[in-house]
Amino acid sequence: MIAVHFDKPGGPENLYLKEVAKPSPGEGEVLLKVAASALNRADLLQRQGQYAPPPGASNILGLEASGHVAELGAGYQGPWKVGDPAMVLLSGGGQAQYVTVPAELLMPIPAGLTMCQAAAIPEAWLTAFQLLHLVGNVQAGDSVLIHAGASGVGTAAIQLARMVGATPLVTAGSQQKLQIAEKLGAAAGFNYKEEDFSEATLKFTKGAGVNLILDCIGGSYWEKNVNCLALDGRWVLYGLLGGADVNGPLFSKLLFKRGSLITSLLRSRDKKYKQMLVKAFTEQILPHFSTEGPQRLLPVLDRVYPVAEIQEAHEYMETNKNVGKIVLELPQ
Ligand SMILES: NC(=O)c1ccc[n+]([C@@H]2O[C@H](COP(=O)([O-])OP(=O)(O)OC[C@H]3O[C@@H](n4cnc5c(N)ncnc54)[C@H](OP(=O)(O)O)[C@@H]3O)[C@@H](O)[C@H]2O)c1
Fold first, then answer.
1. Name one Pfam family in it (predicted).
2. CB of 124 within 8 A of CB of 93?
3. Ligand 1, CB cutoff 6 Å, lining residues
4. pTM tops 0.85
């Protein structure tokens, strides 16, 4: 089979398609024939040599995939059959023609969605669901500040926050991104390049601040985050796009807000946790992607690239232009 490969860490020019051995499903696993995968920031970091896959995970890039079940591991007795369409959260290996997965991590593809739309769901939506509900304990009536509001995770978090009855506010780097975030349900959006999002958030919340912040920026935003956090607010850090260093009185500012700073990484979580997350998401959220539901959730796709254009796809993500997900199609 062909798979995305690089021989040494570095820029997108190091990426190429390589003929590699097709994996075989072990006990409790199934083999998925991949129709589409999607790009994640983690792929850029892994390509640069800054984010090794967790122990036991495939070295091949790709944290999610959609496709069809092609083979069942020995002794598998579960509900999945050869030929079933499915989508899956992975620790790696999705950007290849085949990938093996623990059967419990497969999810059905909601009716009416294409393979490319399905490939845009697992990583962004499971992350957003986990951050809001399991980590951030979001409640109806909460105000939630979502940074990088037009990102893959951001576009999912806006819709999930709305669904639970919270008020999503976003930051983004352009008016076009803010408009799309507002169409998805954001109550307000702030262009962090043109205004102080912290002051704008305090103004919008009439001085109260937000109950929850979903923060993939980190270092460059810490002081503004703590300034606009409500008393007893939760600040969930899940990425470091704005750096890892903090210079200043973070602890005293956070303490006077009685704030909680919580961190979260999904990829390194164990199989049991991911099974629980996938089950909860499948039961509680997936039905809302249906075309017939009253409150339809939408996976937001920016561009679809044939996997042969993997270098271009990485270069595009690095420009920060995408709204929602960048999807890769695998040859069938
Ligand atoms: N912890 C976890 O479990 C987990 C899981 C999935 C993803 N993540 C993290 O979540 C983040 C979003 O992932 P994604 O795939 O959804 O991203 P994405 O779609 O590629 O969007 C990221 C956006 O962040 C904004 N941005 C980049 N650098 C910035 C900076 N220095 N300051 C402010 N904004 C910046 C850019 O939009 P603007 O135009 O608005 O600046 C960029 O388009 C990444 O950091 C990723 O690593 C974490």
1. ADH_N
2. no
3. 40-42, 123-124, 127, 148, 150-153, 172-174, 177, 216-217, 220, 238-239, 241-242, 264-266, 317, 320, 322
4. yes
